[in-house]
Every structure is written in structure tokens, then in C-alpha cells.
């Protein structure tokens, strides 16, 4: 921006704040939500990894990186503002719709729990912004954001306010019972000692403000309660991309009457050179003694270049800036200059109010407009929200195969037709309001197949038509994006010690797969039986160690991915390949199945609660392991009669207490 105004790329600023630390949980809040863009371009900011430039390979790498976070990355969004974009969702992210009783679910936040692996210290990184989780929000618009960090067992002014906001978030997401990421974040916030003082050494402590909860004050009342004595008679500057479609602005008038600014200036929302407000409102601001303004061209130019005729970026930032000769106080967040944003009974909004001492009076960021531009029909951020919306929620559990739908509208639902890209999938009969209802087994199977390609459905209820984003759980059992690793590849992958090694391997493997007509380079087979068997034993020992470590460290979902999942390196995926003659020599396949049985018994005895927690996964693994009988018969038929006697002696010793494979 202009001189004195901080500038940064949002993704880079977030990555810098995380600073390579391990992410333990993450909660995002947004109004407009593009799930495909979020997974491809925003989610990578959580991980200190070199990701491949190809989007599909990058997703495979992210699928691996997300395993330790299973169920602990969640996006809370307004279901009336889904953006289908150019992709779909396929990663382990909880997608939770939130529809408040009044207004819109409009906050833009990220709450990211991180841990320094060298000191084991945990902190909560809090992003409060104006940017939706969309390409426009993170790549194209002029946006604003506030970043801060709350240390575990530390002191913070915002921690109690953030806790209240997250508790209210859970209440609003009433149709979903499990919120693992919120639980983890609350656990850290409960250790934080609140700072009672509003300011220290001339600096206003950050205050987290939000609307849309029972008993909340209006935005102006919150500003007055926190910093009223410093805000009065200061200069005021307001950046808001949306204004009320009215001849006068009630929220602006309330601000002016309450704080009596010495001088004030308001951003004129524009698109293509046309003002996005009524001419009467433009005149009203001037008559009240205010000014309209624009951000400098250098800020608006795409790519930071002011080429003649270059298209300007859209201003989507929401900033309320009060400043005097010795102080600057700024509210940054999601609050537009509209009645629904300012009212205590309107939208759910959030922002951070903070202040600093200055040596001289700051200047306005906005350049004053002297001549009024042409006017177009004003638009609001909620335009089109209720057009093309059906209040249907859908969820699918990959572990159980259970699919359910819920009607969140007024009264019971009419019959609902469900489509995918114009193809009729199934019909849902009348639904009782806010009650999860299971789909038939046939309809659940249809949904399962469609979810392999897209997480979006189209629902038609009467004359209403809208997009539904399916909420997916049990992601360990979701078929992987990359399913064609050979048994030798899987064993080698299990043997890799670090995340960096596995990440590089996935990139290399994916690169080979995406080449025209290319496969993996041919590998020279091991020269000796010892080499072959040592590789098998080492791979299974590494897998066993990884599962035990995950269970010891209470990373249960990560252990589930490995023991019962449907991913490229999950145990059942390897064992199921043993039924095919293309998987290699029967002796190698038989030995791999014995190792898998041995590992299964080890984990069953060591962690019976974990074993019992996933009956579907156990059933799949046991069914796959039954191939041992077939492989045994093949070995006996291809060898002399003594082979059966040898196997009768060998198998009990291999699978018994003196097991060969140890982890």
C-alpha cells in the first residue's frame, strides 16, 4: 500500500507466523468457501514441505501430511455461499456448515495450534481477516488481516474473547456432534491467564470483537466500551467494500454521532469505474461533512504494476481506522459498513481492535475524490445468497458406509431430487426437520462412488435448487488419490524414516505416473533370497514401529490409516494385492501375508481397544488375510509333499511368541 501501510501476501504471512512448527489442529471460518482452492492453495501453508507444482501430486503429498491431523482440520462455512470453483474436495478436512438464526455466518478466521518440536511449547496462531477461503480472497482482492500468537500458559487479552467465540461456533454448528479441532484449541486456551488491563505503555492491547451471539453489543457499543475515550474526536477512515442499499447509512451515522471525528473519509466501493452505491448516499456523506476516497492506484494495480489500462484489484478489506497526533487504533476483520454487520442481532462477524502510539499524526490511506463518478446499482455481499440454496445437509462415513441427510429448513421437507452434474442419483422422501436420516444402502453406495470424483451434489426441492457440500468422516477408509503402488513400493515406503523422504518419494512416483505413457523405472530385482526377505521384514518392522508410536502418542487416527485404511500404503491395500499373480512370486506373497498376520496379532493383543474401535477396518483386513490359505496351497502344489509338513512346523513358530518380525 502507500507509505506507512504494511503490506504482505496473506499465505506467506501465515506461513511465516507458523515458522516451521508442527501443526496440531486448525480451525478456519469463512463466509464464501471454495473447497478445491482451499485444499490446493491454502492448506499447504500449514506444512513446512516442498510440494510439487502439479496440483494432483501436491494433493497426494498433502494427504500424507494430514495423517497426524486426522479429523483436526475443520472449515466452518455458510452453506448459502459455496463456491464450486474448478475443483472439488478430497482431503481429510471436516467441512461443517453453519447457518445462524439471523443474518449470515460472515467471519474470516484461522485458529492454528502449533508446537515447537525442539521445546514442545504450544501456541495458538490467530488470523482475523477480511478474506474468504476463495481464490479472489487469497489471491486477487485487496484484503486485510491481523495475526497474533497466544502461548500456552501465557498471558493474553484476546484469549477469553476467542474462547467465547469458539464456544458460540460450536453452538451454531449444532447439527454436528464432533469438533476435535475445537477441543484441542480449547485445551490450550484454558491454560492462558487473561490480561485485564485494556492498554499498557500507551499501546491498546488487541481485543477480539464479534457479533451474532445472544447478549452481544452492537459494534459501535463494543468500540466505545473498549476504547471510547481514545476514539472520540480522532480522524476516522473506513474501508468497506459493501454499504447498505439506502439513501443514508445508519451505521456510519451512528459512528459519527458517537465518536465525533475531527475529519472522516470513507472508501467509495467501485467496480469498473462505476460507484457501487446510491447517488443519494454519496450526497448524504458529503452533506454530513465527510469525504469519499480511493486507495492509491499502486495498491489497486494487479501485480503491483500501474500499466496503462491495467485492470484494478477489487477492494474487499474491512478497516476502521482512528488516529490522532499520538495514537492510531485500527479494527480489522469482517465488519462491513452495513446494518447486518453492525447490529447485535445481525450477522456473525469478527474483528480485532488494536492500537499503537505514533510520533506524528498518520495520514489518510484513501485519496479524496473530488468529482463523483457514474453510479451503478449497488450490490451487497449477500447478493444471491438465498438464490439457489436448499437447506439440505449430507454426510458420509467411509468407515461404516453410512450416508445420512438432514433438513435444516422450516418445517418438514418436500421430496428432494439429488443430482451430480446433471445425472440423477436418487430421491430423498419427506424429511423431519433437523433429524439425521439414513439413506438406503443402495443410495449410500451411489453416493460413495460419486464421492470418489466430487464432494458436490445438486439438490432440487420443489422450485428450489442448490449446491450441497458433503461432510465426510472416516477418511482413513476413503480410497487414496494414489492407489497403484506395487507391493515392493509399499514396503519401501514403510521403510522411509522421515516425512521429507516420504514426501520426495510421493513426488517422484507421481511424476512418473503423470508422464505420457511412462511408468516407474524398472528396478533390478534383489540378487539373493536374503535380500528379498530382508526387505520384507524391514518394511513390516517399520510399519509396526510407526503404528505403535502413533498409539503411544495418542495419534489414533494415524494408526487407523496405516492398519485399517484404504490409502496407498495401508496394510489392507498391500494384503489385497497378494491375491493377484502379478504381485510376484507365491513364496514372497505368502511371506508378506504371514508378516501382515503377525503384525495384526501383535497390535490386537497390545491395543485391544484400538482393535475393537474399527470393526469395518478389522473385517476388511481379516478378509484380505484369508488369501493365506490359497497361497499355501499354491506352494504345496508346486513343491514336493514335504512342503505341507514344513509349513505346519513353520507357521506356528513364525506367528508365535518367538516371532521373527519385531518392531
TrEMBL record:
Domain of life: Bacteria
Protein name, per record: PLD phosphodiesterase domain-containing protein
Native organism: Micromonospora purpureochromogenes
